Amino acid sequence: MLTSDQINELHRLYISERWPIRKIERHLKLGWKTIKEYLETPAQGAATRERRSKLDPFKAMIAECLEKDPSVTAALFFERIKDQRYSGGHAILQEYVRKVRPQPESKRAFVRMEPFDGERFEVDWVHFDVLNYRSSEPRCQPRPTAGAMASVRLCRANWTEKIPIDFVAISSR
After folding, report:
1. Does any domain span residue 49?
2. 85 vs 99: CA distance, rounded Å
3. 45 within some domain
4. Which of 39, 96, 126, 155 lies deepest, with the highest CB count within 10 Å?
5. Contact predicate 6/43, CB 8 Å
6. Domain assignment of residue 24, given as a range
7. β-bridge partners, 129
């Protein structure tokens, strides 16, 4: 069995240096079957190990407090655990609190309300011109007028109709 340094050297010579297997065989004093076997397996990376965080002793207390009140800020936690000999930074704490904090359920921005037939009442403001034909003036001049029209909307499947209830004209004379 080869050491990790030998395996990495084998991969470096074959991939980076583009040496043929015959040359690697003479250089490392290994058989071609062994070289072929290790080339088919990927090169070993650096060994990783679990690193302890400065925040580890305080994680249980932070999680407990966030369960009780999810609106507690990282700055408040920082002040509280600094007195308990926390030597880490604020950024580490902030990142952890952001990860652990329970997210509130998203609220719907719009709730559609469908009224039953005849329950919806609308008032529309209307601008239009009125011609007075009974006037004794030689020309009929349009007179700007505004009014309000109230209607009840009746809805059935794909059919909509507005039925006017009342009309009030407001003259601008």
Report:
1. no
2. 23
3. no
4. 96
5. no
6. 4-40
7. 144
And the tokens for 133? Answer: 């034909």
Full DSSP string of 48-101: --PPPPTTGGGHHHHHHHHHH-TT--HHHHHHHHHTTT--S-HHHHHHHHHHHS
How many separate helices (H) and strands (E) can be counted in the chain? 6, 3
* Number of domains the chain is built from: 3
* Best CA proximity match to 145, nearest among 163, 132, 162, 164: 132
Joined together, the tokens standing for residue 45 give 């990376």
Residue whose C-alpha is closest to residue 60's, from 96, 15, 111: 96
Is 47 part of a structural domain of the chain? no
Can you tell me the mean pLDDT for 86-106? 88
Instruction: Establish if 111 belongs to a structural domain.
Output: no
Q: Are residues 36 and 60 in the same domain?
A: no
pLDDT digits (tens, 9 = 90+) for 14-61: 999 999 999 999 999 999 999 999 888 776 666 778 888 899 999 999
Chain centroid offset of residue 16 CA = 43
Backbone angles phi, psi at 161, to 5 degrees: -140, 140
Domain match, 34 and 60 both: no
If asked whether residues 160 and 125 sit together in one domain, one would say yes
How many other CB atoms are there within 10 angstroms of residue 60's CB atom? 9
